[in-house]
Amino acid sequence: MDEPIDLTFAPDDSGRIFVAEKDGRIWILKGRERSASPFLNITGRAANLAYEQGLLGLAFHPNYSQNGFFFVNYTNHNGDTVISRFQVSGDPDAADPESEKVLLLVDQPFDNHNGGALAFGPDGFLYIGLGDGGKSNDILGNGQNTYTLLGKVLRIDVDQGEPYAIPPGNAFPQGIGGLPEIWAVGLRNPWRFSFDRQTGDLYIADVGQNTWEEINFLPAGISAGANLGWNYFEGLHAFQGSPPANAYFIQPIHEYHHQEGGCSVTGGQVYRGKKLPGLFGVYLYGDFCSGKIWGLLQHSSGPWNNQLLFSIPGTISSFGQDQAGDIYALTLNGRIYRLERKK
């Protein structure tokens, strides 16, 4: 594979795995065999101009087997974020590249901190992760600015409205106090978030500035409007500025220092497979630079326990999960690892 950046499955019981490459191609894996041609090729639209640009996210509609819809997050030739819907063609192994419907276009002031993750929540709405717009130190103040989509997790209803509708439970559904698409605020660069397929809990990995990487946890059923702290905080540590006296921030459940773990967190998945029963319910995540993969688990509503479980060569770009619940680690040097017990 060439710079794989996301991996997921279509909810159609086909057992196929779909892998998105940063340059704009999506491939199908059947076992260890890659399809002869891409499922989708948008290399002419997805601009892989900088390290954090290109095709960045892929999510299949929960009713994909009926409607054939899937969604992608990519940066265009202006460097801006595009959220689009595509549809499969008459061939189940080929999408129709002309079926693109652009749902959302977000201006990106710089070429980094694009976020990029997409996922459907247990509520059936599409969640979108966007970074603070780039450079460093959140120089535009986007993390806490509720009148920009940057530095946020968004939530939209892709089954209603034109081109989408606003779920009534969003943080600012009427656009009063902030943009109606916003579901959570205070993010620097959420490099991968995922829902636990069994509980509906949401895990968000947020890339730090120079020192601390963090994992955030939003339990299923939490109200919209969670503030995860950036840029007042980097992890658990004050970063810049003084927050309002009445501000409430949700602290990360775990952080690690660059000296102990690497340079940039890559969010993962909660293990729900059968090959590693000892890891059932454990959130697996890694570091882009070090290749370390940890497991994070909470015991009986108490503290979260973090343990180093694997180490792989290469830069970890993403994690994915197949229909059976097995978890895969992707590296930008082109390798995909299925996490299994050592022989």
Helix content: under 10%
Question: What CATH architecture of the largest domain do you see?
Answer: 6 Propeller
Largest β sheet strand count, sense and barrel closure: 5 strands, antiparallel
- According to CATH, the homologous superfamily of the largest domain is TolB, C-terminal domain
- Percent of residues in beta strands: 35-45%
- In the predicted model, the low-confidence regions spanning at least 5 consecutive residues are none
General description of the model:
- The protein is mainly beta and 343 residues long.
- The chain has two domains: 4-275, TolB, C-terminal domain (Neuraminidase, 6 Propeller), CATH 2.120.10.30; 276-343, no CATH class.
- Helices cover 2% and strands 41% of the residues.
- The chain contains two helices and 27 strands.
- The protein has helices at 64-67, 258-261; strands at residues 4-9, 17-21, 25-30, 33-34, 40-41, 55-60, 69-75, 81-88, 95-106, 118-120, 126-130, 152-156, 182-185, 190-195, 202-206, 212-218, 226-227, 233-234, 237-238, 254-257, 265-270, 283-287, 292-298, 304-311, 316-321, 327-331, 336-338.
- The strands form seven sheets. Strands 1, 2, 3, 4 and 5 form a five-stranded antiparallel β-sheet that branches.
- The model has no long low-confidence stretch (mean pLDDT 95).
Short structural summary:
The protein is an all-beta fold. The protein has two domains: 4-275, Neuraminidase (6 Propeller); 276-343, no CATH class.
Annotation keywords:
single chain, 343 residues, mainly beta, five-stranded antiparallel beta sheet, five-stranded mixed beta sheet
